[in-house]
């Protein structure tokens, strides 16, 4: 009789422990996920700021007479038209992956005698993180190793609130051309890139240098562009007057 009572108590106690563990798990997992998201947002934001600072710093150096922010190849323009593309090595880029590869001289990164990146203090780790793997080995940079979309054809007259660097999980074609009077734009998530953050958060570095780390609850951005603005090419080509976004493997056109 004594043994049977002891066995019942043990089974009851086991069920209580299991139930307690399940309750703790239900409470802790969301809290841990939120903490990890915030840590990743902070890390990615810091890397985006580093990219911004390095490129802006290089743009002020006398040996670079042209702006190092990329010009975008639009509507089949010749990608080596010197008169049109006043940016690094006078190339218009079709995606942000190729831009970063050229900017960091990926072709010669294992050849010390030839290695000559356009910027110093920037490495491949700044392009990865939060689930996006860093480039390794001797291959060329691939879209899966690049978490950034970048504004193409940026110009000095554009507002400082224009998103310059955007994590690739944001669909930049969802940006709307608006005025300062009505700047907020709801963001749409990319259907192609889950990482970083999925539909839980995003990072934007603006033209003025401000870093915006947002969560899904605040998935809007002040996408402010000058009305009818943009850059005018040397030959007056209106295609180059359009602000676009170079994604890791293509071009996104704001509405």
Describe this structure as you would to a colleague.
The chain is an alpha+beta fold and 255 residues long. It has one domain. Helix content is 26%, strand content 15%. The protein has 2 helices and 10 strands; from the N terminus they run αββαββββββββ. The strands form 3 sheets. It has a 6-stranded antiparallel sheet, with helices on one face. A hairpin with a 4-residue loop joins strand 6 and strand 7. The longest helix is centred in the first third of the chain and has 58 residues. About 11% of the residues have low confidence.
Topology:
Blueprint: H1 2-59, E1 71-72, E2 92-93, H2 96-103, E3 148-152, E4 163-167, E5 184-186, E6 201-206, E7 211-215, E8 220-222, E9 244-247, E10 250-252
Parallel strand pairs: 1-2
Antiparallel strand pairs: 3-4, 3-9, 4-6, 5-8, 6-7, 9-10
Write out key terms for the chains shown:
255 residues; 10 strands
Low-confidence stretches: 76-87, 227-241
Rg estimate, integer Å = 24 Å
Distance between the termini: 79 Å
- How many DSSP H or I helices? 2
What is the domain tally? Answer: 1
Helix content: 25-40%
Q: What is the overall pLDDT average?
A: 79
Q: Classify the secondary structure makeup into a structural class.
A: alpha+beta
Question: Helices and strands, in N-to-C order?
Answer: HEEHEEEEEEEE
Strand order of the largest sheet: 7-6-4-3-9-10
Strand content: 5-15%
What does the largest sheet look like?
A: 6 strands, antiparallel
Number of beta strands: 10
* Shape field: globular
